[in-house]
From TrEMBL, chain A:
Record-level GO cellular component terms: plasma membrane
Its membrane topology: Multi-pass membrane protein
Name this protein carries in UniProt: Ribose/branched-chain amino acids ABC transporter permease
Residues making up the signal peptide according to the UniProt record: none
Keywords linked to the UniProt accession: Cell membrane, Membrane, Transmembrane, Transmembrane helix
CDD domains the record matches: TM_PBP1_transp_TpRbsC_like
Cell compartments where the protein resides: Cell membrane
Main location: membrane
Keyword Chaperone found: no
PANTHER family given in the database record: GUANOSINE ABC TRANSPORTER PERMEASE PROTEIN NUPQ, SUGAR ABC TRANSPORTER INTEGRAL MEMBRANE PROTEIN-RELATED
Transmembrane segments: 20-40, 60-78, 83-103, 109-132, 139-161, 185-210, 239-258, 278-301, 322-339
UniProtKB/TrEMBL annotation, chain B:
Region (Disordered): 500-536
Key word Nucleotide-binding present: yes
Keyword set, alphabetical order: ATP-binding, Cell membrane, Membrane, Nucleotide-binding, Repeat, Translocase, Transport
Localization annotation: Cell membrane
Gene Ontology MF terms in the entry: ATP binding; ATP hydrolysis activity
CDD domains xref list: ABC_Carb_Monos_I (cd03216), ABC_Carb_Monos_II (cd03215)
InterPro entries listed in its UniProt record: AAA+_ATPase, ABC_carbohydrate_import_ATPase, ABC_transporter-like_ATP-bd, ABC_transporter-like_CS, P-loop_NTPase
Record-given protein name: ABC-type ribose transport system, ATP-binding protein
Domain ABC transporter: 5-242, 259-503
Pfam families noted in UniProt: ABC_tran (PF00005)
UniProtKB/TrEMBL annotation, chain C:
UniProt subcellular location: Cell membrane
Predominant subcellular localization, coarse grouping: membrane
Name the UniProt record assigns to this protein: Ribose/branched-chain amino acids ABC transporter permease
Coiled-coil features, chain-numbered ranges: none
Annotated source species: Halorubrum coriense DSM 10284
GO molecular function, one term: transmembrane transporter activity
GO cellular component assignments: plasma membrane
Keyword Ribonucleoprotein tagged: no
CDD domains reported in the protein's UniProt record: TM_PBP1_transp_TpRbsC_like (cd06580)
Length: 355, 536, 415, 353
């Protein structure tokens, strides 16, 4: 049977080879670009290299990442447990509004932050009941969560403030770690909004839960083979409720971070969340359900966004409207090259113990 | 002394079905008890009641004389019951250790982390105690079916099971692995465990069990001593009438070559060679059988022939033409019928009714869809004809496929494929999970077609089936044909050895599997003669 | 089979428990949503301030907003106040039908893809591409014809251009899914952004109307737009377009239920492995369905240009996303799409009436829309509800999405 | 006068008949006599709460409500196809009968052209675009003129070291920034004027330009402004609606300056008053108020096309409430001179970049 182990490793390598190959190619390409930029600082490569290695780009990417990455972590919890939560966008919206509203009323940013998380968690709990207890189609219920939040937050804002946009409130500010903040490039990691540190913590905790705790295993089993978990004597229903609620908490942190970082909720059109919840789904699919992978893919996307903002300033000859869509185009191209995203086996399915 | 397990008057009703009707079952400690019955007799349901998955409508479960009220498997597990389901309850991407300890993970740091080293150690220790050969770090999706089964048993033992329920444990094993399993069962009973295993194979029940309980249509129809019964008696109890245990297929009258496969190589999703250079021919009017343990490339070979999987090297000819890279649709149109091994995934669209399912594969044909427009009238008539001819029950073309029992689903597929007027029938496990009566029927039909000059390619992991029906029989192992034999001239033991990868003339024993068995010689079958009809 | 037989079968399908139940559930969902919406209006009415004279009184409490007025305006207003006697084909009802027409096409677009097991979130982008292509194509062609002939030629031409380009744009995620295994949910979301960005680039640059401050193309000549017969000249509604929509419903229904291609699509939607077994080329079917879905979206875009705006302008409304909700409410059934599109047409058009007639924030209608979808998603809830009531409903299961993402009804697969 | 006025409560309503029946007092009073006029407001998509354009228009209506005793009803379309719906609803209404319908934003021009001809007896006014009809009064603004002054001020300040409030400039910077919302002719007028003013102040200063693609994405505004400040810009001017909130925030975080738009944002966004040097105020409120006022007086200027520039105080550079007084006098003087030159026609400000 020892060859089974060999198979196992072989399988592992096989499974990840496309991604590994891709990651390798990317790293090689970036290195090549940096070298070219160093040699010809005035060329396009030089500009790009300068932008990429700039501490400011990293800082911007981090800021843009926060809401997306939080939501992506939440999405991982739900989907790994077998509940596809396409309503992340709605959770972000409701928490973004809730956080600002409560901050405005109480004057406490952190009170507002918690309130945003609570709002999102309540909505996620509703989603959980609807999908788990009432066996609603997860996709439809997720869309409903999005639509409800998309209507409710601006509605409330309109009722309370007579405008879909709230007034400005206090913001989170930023925390700098002495000495470390002066590091070249990586200094950006140590002079950032408290929500950035929270995000690092959340990424680590999520990773820890999945890799090291029994609960993490139950979530995985609940999404891959709920019956195996059930017959092992663990309630699939409880695990799924817990996972969806955690997804509400995490997405809530993302939404609250988004609005409190700017000190305002804006509710016109798609609201200030503006598709970040859907990008989060992209991020975790892309990161193959791994918290760290999801974080890195968010950073890739946010990094591209940050880079396009800077590139617009450089006047490199490409029309702005087109520079702006580069992040989306890159995601499509990368996806076409990397290909398959593997959903958990039982994701989307209802599970009942009897009949 | 009270029996270890006592089920008293268990009745379990589902909407419209009485799965168990006042069933009694008594199992002595330290014995092996076989639960025998046709498909749908209620065996699994009864065991699910014992395991706490279902609450009985009425009746009582007693362990060592103590009445139990299981509300969930957790209660049953706590009471020392372990169950190995027909479909393994394993999480594919997780490791052997993770699966065994699932739900009962040893913890450290005040429960904040799984004690992974401890878990692994516990698994290794347990495997050693019972002499199981498993790799604690392998992922389930990467190990053999036999090993998965051992993992399932270990899982139950890990949770302290005293009573082990095995649902059709032998369906997926080679004869050698079956022998090894039975040795393990002996070892377990010797250590005081109690075993209940479900089967519909008479020979197995007699060989491995101490006592046998027979169910029919949800009712208990008999409890017999395994040493004091005969296959005929059991068969009659099971089916309720006398059963012909032997198929006589007469001499082959082979004609022209219909299908020719040469040096075909097929790689699976992970670029591993699943079929590794196989060649053979199937002639009109003959059954060419392929025997082998599941997972040795049969599925890939069959799907390559039928056009569902790409061929990476080699050539497939059908009616003299090279069809290696033609589409599935073209192969259907040119007269290739295919009974797939997985009827619920491939063979039927479960949400469609039988009218729509009768059209599957012919939706572009002249007959039912001239000019691309489906003639639902003709299609319905076609479905009705199949239902009638092949005795599909209930005889209602508007029934959705998922509402049919497995046997009836299979009969419908067989009917649909046979009615295509095929020149070649590729039949993959055509009777898997089908009850005795239907098996008889399907076998008869296959032989009828053969008589009419149709070429038949038959794949089955049931030895008695391929052996009984085939005119020529190839044994496949790890993607290669190990030998092609005359099935009438070959014993079951010889076939079993071939299936385990022993090339003819190769003396070395041990094809992997249970350690306890590695030095044991192939267990002598008690009744080699009856082996042919074991299934029937 | 005799025509009588066929009729009987059709009838039996119609009264099939699941269909009846579906309609019941949809209606119940609507009622429940309205009730919750009413509560919301009352709560909001407590949170704002108004003079005592403006308030309404329920349960002895004063509220600033009156839910009865709100829903009266939302529904009756959208229908053009048929009860008040002042109904005119030029009134609000024409707007409702106009919205319905567009929702019908985007709804069909999403439904078709769903039936093939594909979740096309890209209808919006495909519509944008179709709209832009139509505007440019018709502008070019309008140089060659004019007058009535122009109308007769250019409208079909515009629809064709819209469907071809929408279809091509829809084929992109199709090809990516079929040949590169790229998840269509991701690619279609991304392609929406790309379509909007590229359209903005083109329309603020090369194709910009020099005489307008807006990012738009030169307006189409009058004869290149849908004629308004009988209905809604002012409301930019043409009964001809709605007629096309009804034909599209019938055609899609026919294709899905009565053709080999439709059978292929449905089979690969519910069970791709079985479809492959049945000789369906899954890759081609994926590409074909998404292309067709995109073509329907493209037609929606063409109608937006040729019926409503008379030009392509950036900022096309979210008809594509609304199409998702329409399709879901309809259970992805083309016939149901007609009804669902009308309901959402009423909601969209009623929003403006509510806003005009009351002080209630119009986002309320957005909440209602979400609630309706939520309730429609949980038939189980209504079954439980019905069990508590005398005279139970049927026990049979209701249909949810027919594919897209795995929607197996049970975790158990028993053999 | 001369030079930009200095704050929010500049003397509006000074033109026309002041307080015709000012006795009416507070709003909402349901007096027995009806309002002086019924006004319909159709805002631009994006709606109220944008902190700039629509809010400014509402300001004009509120002022008219207070001073002239009119009553007005608002509608906030969220897509282009709703413009004609609301315009017609107002035109068709008989209870009350609307005396004037104010259409805010250039996107309404096309539908107003149709609506106006369908309802020849209804008076309309439109802001930011010209509609040629007897029953429409059009008001357009010379945004580039005001933006020129903003650019001039920015380039003069950025070339010296200057520190006030929460921001500062360093003398060695070589660029200033412009953040736009969605690319369009209108926003490009702001950009063109700003660029032209910047180069008038100094040849060495470039303008970094970024369009976020949205008028309602503060996060994108912040990143754009951040990128500009990081590249050495001290001052960023925005014409991006609510996206500009992000610009102000970036300015605060980085200790730099911003220039507001449409309204005196140092007053309407007091949280950011310590970084807002000035705002390029566009008196949409004046246009709305004047049109209403004329309607009340039965002097509706139908068919007219009023271009509001620096000369008529239609656009102006209003220095920050908090920082304005700290700006060096020579710069104020130079800006004032430039203003005179433009009004006199001596300086020609381009309206396209
Ligand atoms: N969950 C269920 N709901 C409804 N009917 C069920 C359910 N489970 C089993 N049945 C029905 O109960 C009967 C007994 O089924 P059971 O699975 O116990 O048979 P079995 O003897 O194990 O058959 P096999 O040999 O095919 O495994 C069958 O008619 C089956 O259709
Ligand atoms: N969905 C599909 N699945 C499988 N093969 C397809 C599919 N669509 C097209 N093809 C292939 O393309 C060829 C032409 O397609 P077409 O749909 O015109 O069918 P056809 O052969 O003309 O059949 P008919 O007109 O009788 O329906 C077919 O022969 C078939 O091999
Ligand atoms: Mg069974
Ligand atoms: Mg054809």
């Amino acid at each position: 049977m020892s060859d089974a182990a060999g198979d196992g490793e072989g399988g592992f390598v096989e499974r990840y080879s496309t991604r590994a190959l891709f990651a390798g190619t990317t790293v090689a390409a970036v290195v090549a670009l940096l070298v070219a930029g160093l040699l010809f600082p005035d060329s396009l490569a030089g500009t790009l290299a300068a932008v990429l290695t700039s501490e400011n780009t990293l800082a911007a990417a981090l800021r843009l990442s926060v809401p997306i990455a939080f939501a992506a972590l939440g999405g991982i919890f739900a989907e790994k447990s077998g509940v596809i939560n396409i309503g992340l966008e709605g959770l972000l919206i409701i928490s973004a509004f809730g956080a600002v509203y409560v901050t405005e009323v109480t004057g406490g940013v952190w009170v507002g932050f918690v309130a945003g998380v609570v709002a999102s968690t309540l909505l996620a709990a509703l989603f959980a009941v609807v999908t788990i207890k009432f066996r609603a189609d997860q996709i439809i219920a997720g869309l409903a969560v999005w639509l409800i939040a998309l209507g409710l937050a601006p509605f409330a804002s309109q009722v309370i403030y007579n405008s879909p946009n709230t007034p400005t409130v206090q913001t989170m500010g930023s925390i700098a770690v002495p000495v470390l903040e002066d590091l070249p490039f990586f200094g950006a990691l140590f002079s950032a909004s408290p929500t950035v540190y929270l995000l690092f913590l959340a990424v680590f905790c999520s990773w820890y839960v999945f890799e090291r705790t029994a609960f993490g295993r139950w979530i995985r089993a609940s999404g891959e083979n709920p019956k195996a978990l059930d017959t092992a004597g663990v309630s699939v229903t409880h695990v799924r409720y817990a996972a969806v609620i955690i997804s509400g908490v995490l997405a809530g942190m993302g939404g609250a971070a988004l609005s409190l970082d700017l000190g305002q909720f804006t509710g016109n059109g798609p609201t200030m969340v503006n598709g970040k919840g859907f990008i989060a789904i992209v991020a975790y699919l892309f990161g193959n359900y791994n918290p760290v992978g999801a974080f890195l893919s968010t950073m890739l996307f946010a990094g591209l966004d940050a880079v396009q903002t800077v590139l617009q300033l450089q006047g490199i000859g490409v029309p702005r409207q087109l520079i702006r869509i580069t992040p989306f185009v890159v995601v499509i191209i990368v996806l076409a090259l990397v290909g398959r995203t593997q959903l958990p086996e039982a994701a989307g399915d209802h599970y009942e113990t009897e009949e | 002394m009270a029996s270890a397990v006592h089920l008293d008057g268990i009745t379990k009703r589902f909407p419209g079905v009485v799965a168990n009707d006042d069933v009694d079952l008594e199992v002595e400690r330290g014995t092996v008890h076989a639960l025998l019955g046709e498909n749908g007799a209620g065996k699994t349901t009864l065991m699910n009641v014992l395991y706490g998955l279902y609450e009985p409508t009425s009746g009582e479960v007693r362990l060592d004389g103590e009445p139990q009220a299981f509300r969930s498997p957790r209660d049953a597990i706590d009471a020392g019951i372990g169950m190995i389901h027909q479909h393994f309850m394993l999480v594919d991407p997780m490791t052997v250790t993770e699966n065994i300890t699932l739900g009962n993970e040893p913890r450290k740091w005040g429960g904040l982390a799984v004690d992974r080293a401890g878990a692994r150690e516990a698994v290794v220790e347990l495997a050693d105690r019972y002499g199981f050969d498993v790799d604690p770090d392998a992922r389930i999706e990467d190990v053999s079916v036999g090993e998965q089964q051992r993992v399932e048993i270990l899982k139950a033992l890990y949770r302290g099971a005293d009573v082990l329920i095995l649902d059709e444990p032998t369906a997926v094993l080679t004869p050698q692995e079956v022998d090894e399993l039975f040795d393990v069962l002996d070892e377990l009973t010797a250590q005081g465990k109690t075993i209940i295993f479900i089967t519909h194979k008479l020979g197995e029940a007699m060989r491995a069990a101490d006592d046998i309980t027979v169910l029919r249509d949800g009712e208990k129809v008999g409890a017999v001593d395994a040493n004091a019964t005969s296959q005929e008696e059991l068969a009659e109890l099971m089916v309720g009438r006398e059963v012909l245990l032997d198929v006589d297929h007469g001499a082959a009258d082979a004609g022209d070559v219909v299908a020719a496969v040469s040096d075909v190589v097929v790689e699976d999703d992970r670029d591993v060679r699943a079929v590794d250079g196989v060649s053979f021919e199937v002639r009109a009017g003959e059954v060419f059988g392929i025997a082998g343990v599941d997972g040795n490339g049969q599925s890939e070979l069959v799907e390559a022939v039928t056009g569902l999987q790409e061929v990476d090297a080699g050539e497939i000819r059908f009616r003299g033409e090279d069809v290696t890279s033609t589409s599935r649709r073209e192969r259907i149109d040119s007269g290739m019928a295919y009974i797939p091994e997985d009827r619920q995934e491939r063979g039927l669209v479960m949400e469609f009714d039988l009218v729509e399912n009768g059209l599957l594969g012919s939706q572009h044909g002249r007959e039912f869809a001239p000019n691309g427009r489906i003639d639902w009238g003709d299609t319905r008539a076609h479905a009705d004809a199949i239902i009638d001819e092949y005795d599909v029950r209930p005889p209602n073309a508007d029934a959705e496929a998922h509402s049919l029992s497995g046997g009836n689903q299979q009969k419908f597929i067989v009917g649909r494929e046979f009615e295509r007027d095929p020149e070649l029938v590729v039949a993959s496990h055509p009777t898997r999970g089908v009850d005795v009566g239907s098996i008889e029927f399907i076998h008869e039909r296959l032989l009828e077609l053969r008589q009419q000059g149709v070429a038949i390619l038959l794949v089955s992991s049931k030895l008695e089936e391929v052996q009984g029906l085939s005119d020529r029989l190839a044994v496949v192992y790890e993607g290669e044909f190990i030998d092609v034999v005359d099935p009438d001239e070959t014993t079951e033991e010889e076939l079993g050895l071939l299936m385990a990868g022993e090339r003819p003339g190769d003396g070395d024993g041990g094809g992997g599997g249970f350690e306890t068995a590695s030095e044991a010689e192939p267990a002598p079958s008690t009744n080699a003669d009856a082996a042919d009809g074991e299934e029937a | 089979m005799s025509p009588a037989d066929r009729a009987r079968k059709a009838l039996s399908r119609l009264v099939e428990a699941s269909a009846t139940e579906r309609i019941l559930i949809s209606s119940a969902a609507l009622v429940l949503s309205v009730l919750i919406g009413a509560v919301l209006v009352l709560v909001a009415g407590r949170m704002t301030s108004c003079t005592a004279g403006e308030a309404v009184y329920y349960f002895g409490t004063g509220f600033c907003y009156d839910p009865v007025v709100v829903f009266d305006r939302l529904f009756l207003g959208a229908l053009g106040d048929p009860l008040s006697g002042g109904w005119s084909p030029n009134g609000q009802f024409a707007i409702t039908l106009r919205e319905t027409t567009l929702l019908l096409f985007t709804g069909l677009s999403v439904a078709l893809a769903f039936r093939a097991g594909i979740f096309n979130i890209g209808t919006q982008g495909q519509m944008v591409v179709g709209a832009l292509a139509t505007a440019l194509g018709v502008l070019w062609a309008s140089a060659f014809v004019s007058g009535l002939v122009g109308t007769v030629v250019l409208i079909p031409f515009g629809l064709l251009v819209g469907s071809v380009f929408g279809g091509l744009y829809g084929a992109i995620p199709g090809v990516l899914k079929a040949y590169a295994d790229a998840n269509e949910v991701i690619t279609t979301i991304m392609l929406n952004f790309v379509a909007t960005g590229v359209a903005l680039y083109l329309v603020s640059g090369v194709f910009k109307d020099p005489n307008s401050a807006a990012n738009q193309t030169v307006p189409l000549p009058e004869f290149a737009q849908f004629p308004s017969l009988f209905f809604g000249a002012r409301q930019d509604f043409s009964i001809v377009a709605l007629g096309f929509g009804l034909v599209a419903i019938a055609a899609l229904y026919y294709v899905l239920e009565h053709t080999a291609f439709g059978y292929d699509v449905r089979t690969s939607g519910v069970q791709p492995e079985a479809a492959e077994y049945g000789g369906v080329d899954s890759k081609r079917t994926i590409v074909a369905s998404l292309a067709l879905s995109g073509a329907l979206a493209g037609i929606a875009g063409a109608m937006y240009v040729m019926m409503i705006l008379g030009t392509f302008q950036t900022g096309i409304p979210d008809y594509g996303f609304d199409g998702i909700t329409v399709s879901i409410l309809a259970g992805n059934n083309p016939l149901g799409v007609g009804v669902a599109a009308l309901l959402f047409g009423v909601l969209k058009s009623g929003t403006t009436v509510v806003q005009f007639a009351t002080d209630v924030p119009p986002q309320l209608v957005g909440v209602l829309r979400g609630l309706i979808i939520l309730f429609v998603a949980m038939p189980e809830f209504f079954r439980l509800l019905a069990k508590g009531l005398p005279g139970q409903w049927s026990e049979s299961e209701a249909v949810a999405t027919d594919g897209g993402v795995a929607v197996d009804q049970g975790g158990e697969t028993d053999e | 006068s001369g030079g930009p006025s200095d704050g929010e409560n500049s003397s509006d309503g000074s033109d026309g008949s002041d307080g015709s029946d000012g006795s009416d007092g507070s709003d909402g009073s349901d007096g027995e006599s009806g309002p002086a006029a019924n006004i319909g407001m159709v805002y631009a998509t994006g709606g109220l709460g944008d902190g700039s354009f629509n809010d400014q228009a509402q300001q004009g209506a509120l002022q008219a409500e207070e001073e002239l005793g009119i009553s007005f009803r608002e509608s906030q379309p969220d897509e282009v196809s709703q413009f004609s719906t609301f315009q017609q609803q107002f035109a068709e209404s008989s209870d009350p009968n609307y005396d004037l319908v104010c259409c805010i934003g250039f996107l309404q021009a096309d539908s107003l052209t149709d609506t106006a001809s369908s309802y020849p007896d209804q008076d309309f006014m439109i802001v930011d675009s010209a509609v040629d009809a007897d029953n429409v009064a059009s008001y357009v603004f010379q945004e580039h003129e005001g933006s020129y002054l903003a650019g001039l001020m920015a380039s003069l300040l950025t070339t010296r070291s200057f520190s006030v409030g929460a921001g500062s400039t360093t003398g060695d910077s070589t660029n200033v920034g412009f953040v736009g919302g969605v690319e369009s002719d209108l926003i490009q007028k702001f950009q063109a004027g700003f660029e032209s003013g910047v180069s008038a102040g100094s040849d060495d200063i470039d303008v970094s330009v970024n369009y976020t693609g949205s008028f309602n994405d503060p996060a994108a505004g912040r990143e754009a402004a951040n990128a500009m400040y990081n590249s050495g810009a001290d001052i960023v001017y925005h014409a991006a609606g609510n996206t500009g909130t992000g610009v102000f925030q970036a300015a605060q975080e980085q200790g730099r300056f911003a220039i507001g738009v449409d309204r005196d944002q140092s007053v309407t966004r007091p949280d950011y008053a310590d970084v807002i040097l000035a705002s390029m105020v566009k008196r949409v409120d004046t246009a709305v108020y004047n049109a209403i006022d004329a309607t009340v007086d039965d002097e509706f200027p139908g068919g007219s096309n009023v271009a509001l520039g620096l000369d008529s105080d239609g656009v102006e550079l209003v220095f920050g409430d908090q920082l304005g007084s700290e700006i060096p006098q020579e710069i104020l003087d130079e800006v004032a001179t430039a203003r005179e030159d433009i009004i006199a026609g001596d300086t020609d400000v381009p309206s396209e970049p």
